[in-house]
Amino acid sequence: MSNQTRKVPKFTIARRIVQICVLVLFAAPLIAVGSGLFGATSGAEELDFTASTLPFFGSLSSSTVAGVVVLDPFAALQTICASKTFDVSWLIAALPVLLVYGLVRGRAFCGWVCPVNLVLEGLDWVRGKLGLKVAEHAVPRHAKLLVALGILVLSAVTGRLVFEMFNPISAINKLVLFGSVAGVVTLAAIAVLELFWARRVWCRALCPLGGFYEALGQLGCFSVKMDHSACTHCGLCSKACLADPEILDDALDGTSGRVAAGDCMLCGKCVDVCPTQALSLGPAAPFPK
Ligand code: SF4
Ligand code: SF4
Fold first, then answer.
1. Cβ proximity of 204 and 243 under 8 Å
2. Which of 266, 279, 280 is the pocket-test mutation for ligand 2 (most atoms within 8 Å of CB)?
3. Average pLDDT score over residue span 216-245
4. Total structural domains in the chain?
Protein backbone atom coordinates (compact mmCIF):
# COMPACT_ATOMS: atom_id res chain seq x y z
CA MET A 1 0.00 0.00 0.00
CA SER A 2 1.42 3.38 -0.92
CA ASN A 3 2.20 6.08 1.63
CA GLN A 4 -0.42 8.27 -0.05
CA THR A 5 -3.24 6.04 1.27
CA ARG A 6 -2.00 6.24 4.89
CA LYS A 7 -3.33 9.75 5.50
CA VAL A 8 -5.25 10.48 8.70
CA PRO A 9 -8.87 9.31 8.25
CA LYS A 10 -10.23 12.56 9.64
CA PHE A 11 -13.88 11.95 8.78
CA THR A 12 -13.82 8.48 10.31
CA ILE A 13 -12.23 9.86 13.49
CA ALA A 14 -14.76 12.69 13.64
CA ARG A 15 -17.64 10.24 13.13
CA ARG A 16 -16.43 7.95 15.92
CA ILE A 17 -16.32 10.93 18.28
CA VAL A 18 -19.86 12.00 17.30
CA GLN A 19 -21.25 8.42 17.46
CA ILE A 20 -19.79 7.90 20.95
CA CYS A 21 -20.96 11.35 22.10
CA VAL A 22 -24.51 10.45 21.02
CA LEU A 23 -24.41 7.26 23.11
CA VAL A 24 -23.05 9.23 26.08
CA LEU A 25 -25.68 11.94 25.60
CA PHE A 26 -28.53 9.47 26.03
CA ALA A 27 -26.81 7.59 28.87
CA ALA A 28 -25.90 10.73 30.84
CA PRO A 29 -29.38 11.49 32.28
CA LEU A 30 -29.68 7.97 33.70
CA ILE A 31 -26.20 8.04 35.17
CA ALA A 32 -26.96 11.48 36.64
CA VAL A 33 -29.89 10.09 38.62
CA GLY A 34 -27.95 7.12 39.98
CA SER A 35 -28.39 4.41 37.37
CA GLY A 36 -25.37 2.61 35.94
CA LEU A 37 -25.17 1.27 32.42
CA PHE A 38 -26.55 -2.14 31.37
CA GLY A 39 -29.27 -1.91 34.02
CA ALA A 40 -26.89 -1.61 36.98
CA THR A 41 -27.91 0.75 39.79
CA SER A 42 -25.20 2.72 41.50
CA GLY A 43 -27.37 4.53 44.05
CA ALA A 44 -29.45 3.04 46.90
CA GLU A 45 -32.22 5.61 46.53
CA GLU A 46 -35.25 4.91 44.42
CA LEU A 47 -34.66 6.23 40.91
CA ASP A 48 -36.89 8.89 39.49
CA PHE A 49 -35.98 9.73 35.91
CA THR A 50 -39.28 10.66 34.35
CA ALA A 51 -39.11 13.13 31.49
CA SER A 52 -40.68 15.81 33.66
CA THR A 53 -37.88 15.70 36.24
CA LEU A 54 -34.90 15.89 33.89
CA PRO A 55 -33.96 18.62 31.40
CA PHE A 56 -33.02 15.97 28.86
CA PHE A 57 -34.13 12.37 28.68
CA GLY A 58 -35.07 9.86 26.04
CA SER A 59 -33.84 7.95 23.02
CA LEU A 60 -33.31 8.52 19.31
CA SER A 61 -37.01 7.68 18.75
CA SER A 62 -38.42 10.10 21.28
CA SER A 63 -36.86 12.48 23.77
CA THR A 64 -37.73 15.45 25.93
CA VAL A 65 -35.52 18.56 25.84
CA ALA A 66 -36.36 21.15 28.50
CA GLY A 67 -39.91 19.84 28.59
CA VAL A 68 -40.29 19.92 24.79
CA VAL A 69 -40.96 16.56 23.12
CA VAL A 70 -38.76 15.76 20.09
CA LEU A 71 -39.79 12.83 17.88
CA ASP A 72 -38.04 10.81 15.23
CA PRO A 73 -40.07 11.72 12.07
CA PHE A 74 -40.39 8.09 10.97
CA ALA A 75 -41.76 7.15 14.41
CA ALA A 76 -44.17 10.09 14.09
CA LEU A 77 -45.29 8.84 10.65
CA GLN A 78 -45.87 5.35 12.07
CA THR A 79 -47.90 6.87 14.91
CA ILE A 80 -50.06 8.75 12.39
CA CYS A 81 -50.59 5.58 10.30
CA ALA A 82 -51.25 3.33 13.32
CA SER A 83 -53.68 5.70 15.02
CA LYS A 84 -55.21 6.93 11.73
CA THR A 85 -55.32 10.39 13.25
CA PHE A 86 -53.24 13.46 12.61
CA ASP A 87 -52.14 15.48 15.60
CA VAL A 88 -50.22 18.61 14.59
CA SER A 89 -48.17 18.34 17.81
CA TRP A 90 -46.54 15.16 16.39
CA LEU A 91 -45.47 17.10 13.30
CA ILE A 92 -44.12 19.94 15.46
CA ALA A 93 -42.24 17.41 17.61
CA ALA A 94 -40.68 15.83 14.51
CA LEU A 95 -39.83 19.14 12.81
CA PRO A 96 -36.42 19.82 14.50
CA VAL A 97 -35.07 16.41 13.43
CA LEU A 98 -36.62 16.73 9.96
CA LEU A 99 -35.05 20.17 9.48
CA VAL A 100 -31.57 19.15 10.65
CA TYR A 101 -31.29 16.05 8.45
CA GLY A 102 -33.27 17.61 5.60
CA LEU A 103 -30.87 20.56 5.46
CA VAL A 104 -27.63 18.63 6.00
CA ARG A 105 -28.39 15.36 4.20
CA GLY A 106 -30.94 12.71 5.18
CA ARG A 107 -28.61 9.81 5.72
CA ALA A 108 -26.12 11.84 7.71
CA PHE A 109 -28.18 10.30 10.54
CA CYS A 110 -26.99 6.84 9.42
CA GLY A 111 -23.36 7.83 9.00
CA TRP A 112 -22.88 10.03 12.04
CA VAL A 113 -25.52 9.21 14.65
CA CYS A 114 -27.04 5.72 14.36
CA PRO A 115 -25.54 3.26 16.90
CA VAL A 116 -26.49 0.30 14.68
CA ASN A 117 -24.15 1.58 11.97
CA LEU A 118 -21.42 1.95 14.62
CA VAL A 119 -21.89 -1.69 15.68
CA LEU A 120 -22.08 -2.95 12.08
CA GLU A 121 -18.96 -1.02 11.04
CA GLY A 122 -17.24 -2.74 13.98
CA LEU A 123 -18.56 -6.11 12.83
CA ASP A 124 -17.35 -5.46 9.27
CA TRP A 125 -13.92 -4.47 10.64
CA VAL A 126 -13.70 -7.73 12.63
CA ARG A 127 -14.86 -9.71 9.58
CA GLY A 128 -12.12 -8.07 7.51
CA LYS A 129 -9.46 -8.75 10.17
CA LEU A 130 -10.51 -12.41 10.38
CA GLY A 131 -10.43 -12.64 6.59
CA LEU A 132 -14.02 -13.94 6.49
CA LYS A 133 -15.41 -13.78 2.97
CA VAL A 134 -19.09 -12.93 2.53
CA ALA A 135 -20.82 -14.49 -0.45
CA GLU A 136 -22.43 -11.36 -1.89
CA HIS A 137 -26.10 -11.54 -2.75
CA ALA A 138 -27.44 -8.71 -4.87
CA VAL A 139 -30.00 -6.70 -2.93
CA PRO A 140 -31.21 -3.54 -4.72
CA ARG A 141 -30.13 -0.60 -2.60
CA HIS A 142 -33.51 1.14 -3.03
CA ALA A 143 -35.27 -1.83 -1.40
CA LYS A 144 -35.11 0.16 1.85
CA LEU A 145 -37.56 2.71 0.38
CA LEU A 146 -40.08 -0.10 -0.15
CA VAL A 147 -39.37 -1.53 3.31
CA ALA A 148 -40.10 1.92 4.81
CA LEU A 149 -43.34 2.16 2.83
CA GLY A 150 -44.28 -1.39 3.82
CA ILE A 151 -43.71 -0.56 7.51
CA LEU A 152 -46.09 2.42 7.23
CA VAL A 153 -48.76 0.32 5.47
CA LEU A 154 -48.41 -2.45 8.07
CA SER A 155 -48.65 0.12 10.87
CA ALA A 156 -51.93 1.35 9.37
CA VAL A 157 -53.26 -2.21 8.99
CA THR A 158 -52.25 -3.48 12.44
CA GLY A 159 -52.66 -0.27 14.42
CA ARG A 160 -49.17 -0.74 15.86
CA LEU A 161 -45.82 1.00 15.40
CA VAL A 162 -44.39 -1.90 13.40
CA PHE A 163 -40.73 -0.82 13.14
CA GLU A 164 -40.64 -0.02 16.85
CA MET A 165 -41.45 -3.70 17.52
CA PHE A 166 -38.02 -4.75 16.22
CA ASN A 167 -36.11 -1.48 15.89
CA PRO A 168 -32.40 -2.39 16.33
CA ILE A 169 -31.58 1.20 17.39
CA SER A 170 -33.96 0.90 20.34
CA ALA A 171 -32.51 -2.57 21.01
CA ILE A 172 -29.01 -1.09 21.43
CA ASN A 173 -30.32 1.80 23.55
CA LYS A 174 -32.25 -0.54 25.85
CA LEU A 175 -29.32 -2.93 26.13
CA VAL A 176 -26.79 -0.22 26.99
CA LEU A 177 -29.08 1.81 29.25
CA PHE A 178 -31.28 -0.79 30.94
CA GLY A 179 -29.53 -4.11 30.34
CA SER A 180 -32.60 -5.29 28.40
CA VAL A 181 -31.79 -8.22 26.09
CA ALA A 182 -35.22 -8.17 24.42
CA GLY A 183 -33.80 -6.78 21.15
CA VAL A 184 -30.72 -8.97 21.00
CA VAL A 185 -32.48 -11.39 18.62
CA THR A 186 -32.93 -8.58 16.05
CA LEU A 187 -29.30 -7.52 16.39
CA ALA A 188 -28.09 -11.14 16.10
CA ALA A 189 -30.27 -11.69 13.00
CA ILE A 190 -28.75 -8.60 11.33
CA ALA A 191 -25.23 -9.72 12.28
CA VAL A 192 -25.84 -13.18 10.75
CA LEU A 193 -27.19 -11.57 7.55
CA GLU A 194 -24.13 -9.33 7.27
CA LEU A 195 -21.62 -12.07 8.03
CA PHE A 196 -23.06 -14.85 5.91
CA TRP A 197 -25.38 -13.35 3.30
CA ALA A 198 -24.40 -9.88 2.05
CA ARG A 199 -21.92 -7.36 3.40
CA ARG A 200 -23.49 -4.28 5.07
CA VAL A 201 -26.87 -5.35 3.68
CA TRP A 202 -28.89 -3.85 6.56
CA CYS A 203 -27.70 -0.24 6.15
CA ARG A 204 -27.26 -0.56 2.39
CA ALA A 205 -30.63 -2.00 1.44
CA LEU A 206 -32.96 -3.05 4.23
CA CYS A 207 -33.22 -0.52 7.07
CA PRO A 208 -36.56 1.34 6.82
CA LEU A 209 -35.17 4.33 8.69
CA GLY A 210 -32.35 4.46 6.13
CA GLY A 211 -35.05 4.33 3.43
CA PHE A 212 -36.93 7.21 5.02
CA TYR A 213 -33.76 9.31 5.23
CA GLU A 214 -32.79 8.34 1.66
CA ALA A 215 -36.04 9.93 0.52
CA LEU A 216 -34.90 13.17 2.19
CA GLY A 217 -31.39 12.87 0.74
CA GLN A 218 -31.83 15.08 -2.32
CA LEU A 219 -32.73 18.10 -0.16
CA GLY A 220 -29.40 18.16 1.65
CA CYS A 221 -27.01 21.10 1.36
CA PHE A 222 -23.84 18.99 1.83
CA SER A 223 -22.32 16.55 -0.67
CA VAL A 224 -19.22 14.66 -1.64
CA LYS A 225 -17.71 16.57 -4.57
CA MET A 226 -15.42 15.25 -7.27
CA ASP A 227 -12.43 16.86 -9.00
CA HIS A 228 -12.36 14.77 -12.17
CA SER A 229 -8.91 16.01 -13.19
CA ALA A 230 -7.39 14.51 -10.01
CA CYS A 231 -9.10 11.10 -10.16
CA THR A 232 -6.93 8.15 -11.23
CA HIS A 233 -9.86 5.69 -11.19
CA CYS A 234 -8.17 3.51 -8.60
CA GLY A 235 -11.56 2.41 -7.26
CA LEU A 236 -10.65 2.75 -3.56
CA CYS A 237 -13.59 5.07 -2.87
CA SER A 238 -16.20 2.65 -4.26
CA LYS A 239 -14.64 -0.20 -2.30
CA ALA A 240 -14.75 1.80 0.94
CA CYS A 241 -18.25 3.28 0.53
CA LEU A 242 -20.44 2.61 3.57
CA ALA A 243 -23.66 2.99 1.58
CA ASP A 244 -23.23 1.26 -1.78
CA PRO A 245 -20.33 1.31 -4.27
CA GLU A 246 -22.64 2.19 -7.17
CA ILE A 247 -23.61 5.56 -5.70
CA LEU A 248 -20.18 6.86 -6.75
CA ASP A 249 -20.54 5.69 -10.37
CA ASP A 250 -21.89 8.97 -11.83
CA ALA A 251 -19.16 11.00 -10.14
CA LEU A 252 -16.47 8.57 -11.29
CA ASP A 253 -17.58 8.37 -14.93
CA GLY A 254 -17.81 12.15 -15.22
CA THR A 255 -21.61 12.33 -15.48
CA SER A 256 -21.84 14.30 -12.23
CA GLY A 257 -19.55 16.57 -10.26
CA ARG A 258 -20.68 15.06 -6.98
CA VAL A 259 -22.26 12.04 -5.30
CA ALA A 260 -25.90 12.87 -5.91
CA ALA A 261 -27.60 9.70 -4.62
CA GLY A 262 -30.01 10.21 -1.75
CA ASP A 263 -28.54 7.26 0.09
CA CYS A 264 -25.08 8.81 0.56
CA MET A 265 -24.46 8.85 4.33
CA LEU A 266 -22.01 11.74 4.11
CA CYS A 267 -19.67 9.52 6.10
CA GLY A 268 -16.56 10.80 4.32
CA LYS A 269 -15.02 7.34 4.10
CA CYS A 270 -14.45 7.80 0.34
CA VAL A 271 -12.74 11.14 1.02
CA ASP A 272 -10.56 9.52 3.69
CA VAL A 273 -9.30 6.77 1.37
CA CYS A 274 -8.84 8.78 -1.83
CA PRO A 275 -5.08 8.95 -2.45
CA THR A 276 -5.24 11.97 -4.78
CA GLN A 277 -7.64 14.29 -2.90
CA ALA A 278 -10.02 14.09 -5.84
CA LEU A 279 -12.92 13.92 -3.40
CA SER A 280 -13.99 16.51 -0.87
CA LEU A 281 -16.99 16.92 1.40
CA GLY A 282 -18.66 20.27 1.82
CA PRO A 283 -21.62 22.58 1.14
CA ALA A 284 -23.39 22.14 -2.20
CA ALA A 285 -26.74 23.25 -3.61
CA PRO A 286 -29.63 20.80 -3.03
CA PHE A 287 -31.31 18.77 -5.78
CA PRO A 288 -28.12 17.84 -7.66
CA LYS A 289 -28.34 16.78 -11.34
S1 SF4 B 1 -11.98 9.51 -6.49
FE2 SF4 B 1 -10.02 9.00 -5.50
S3 SF4 B 1 -10.36 6.96 -4.55
FE4 SF4 B 1 -12.02 7.30 -6.05
S5 SF4 B 1 -11.28 6.34 -7.94
FE6 SF4 B 1 -10.71 8.54 -8.07
S7 SF4 B 1 -8.64 8.60 -7.22
FE8 SF4 B 1 -9.48 6.61 -6.61
S1 SF4 C 1 -20.22 8.20 -1.22
FE2 SF4 C 1 -18.63 8.60 0.32
S3 SF4 C 1 -19.66 9.87 1.87
FE4 SF4 C 1 -21.27 8.89 0.64
S5 SF4 C 1 -21.76 7.00 1.76
FE6 SF4 C 1 -20.21 6.45 0.22
S7 SF4 C 1 -18.27 6.63 1.34
FE8 SF4 C 1 -19.81 7.72 2.55
1. yes
2. 266
3. 94
4. 2
